[in-house]
Amino acid sequence: MLDGTNICATADSRKVKPRAVHMPLKLSDAELDAVLQAARPLPIDMRDPFLQAVAHALAGRDVIGPGVVHQVVRELQRQFFDPPDLSHAGGGSKYR
User: pTM to 2 decimals?
Assistant: First the structure.
């Protein structure tokens, strides 16, 4: 460790790149469950960016509690969620 950064080399490059050290978030079981449940309806390829965005948003808060977690998760899920198109080609319900 050098000046608060980790040094890591990439496989395709011999250059050494500094990487910031991140402290883990302290979430209760219920808060972590809320975050993971919010990630569940997202496409698999969007879950990691969503979780990283949640971690980044929570890291900027002085106090983390259930209300803050819920607010952050709600706002970010709206940004990452792409609802399915439920319209049918015929335009009507299959039950009519």
Answer: 0.65
